[in-house]
Structure formats: C-alpha cells, structure tokens
Predict the structure.
Amino acid sequence: MKLLSPHQAWLQHITGAEVFVIQSAENSENFKFGLDFVSPLITEIKRRNPEKVHFVGLSMDAVPAQALAQRVEGSHLHLIAPMTNFSQSSKALWEDLYSKVFYTQLISIDTIEEATKIIFRDSEISPEDIDIL
C-alpha cells in the first residue's frame, strides 16, 4: 500500500476521482485472493457516493480490483504488473528463484502444483474465479 500511495495521490489530483488502492490479498484473515475486500469496498463506495471512482491493483491485487471495476459502474481500472494466472505465476516464481539451486532437493515443481491446489481448495475459490482476463 505504501508503494502505491504516491500513485493514488497523483491519480486523485489528476482525475478528481476517489482512488482506491486495493489492500494486499495476504492481509486477509482467511486467504481469498483479496476477493473478501470487494463487498466492504462496495459498501464504502456507496456510503461516499463519489462521482468518479478509480481502482488500482498491484500484482495479485488485480483480482479484487477487476471484480470491483465490474461491479462499480463507470469506474476505471489501473493494474500494475497484474497476476493473470496464479498457478502459472507460482511455477514461474519457483522456476526463477529456486529451480537451479539447492532448494530443488527440498521443493519440486510437483510440490508447487500441489500447494496451489491446496490454496484454491482452502480459499474455496476456483482458478476461474480469479481469471482477470
């Protein structure tokens, strides 16, 4: 959130809109890819009743930002390095950071695939639910 605060202030100044930076998904009590922030934000937007609304989502936070933009008529969506596929992103991160070092002895690509399945199961969210494309 601190990273995007300057962008939020700039967008508010330039557009005159209420700009909501979506809270990081890992701030949830029960991980749901940030989708649990959608309803409270909708309630707050209705309370404020702004003329213009912009949403900013970084990486995984593109998921709730997209969901909000679909529900708030006339809103604008700003995505920064959006995560478009959690399973592929998890594998790519593993490939980039761990595949060529000692960790391959401890964590295999099969483990990463199983972990993403567990995350989807425990969050009660399907890959289709977070497909922003």
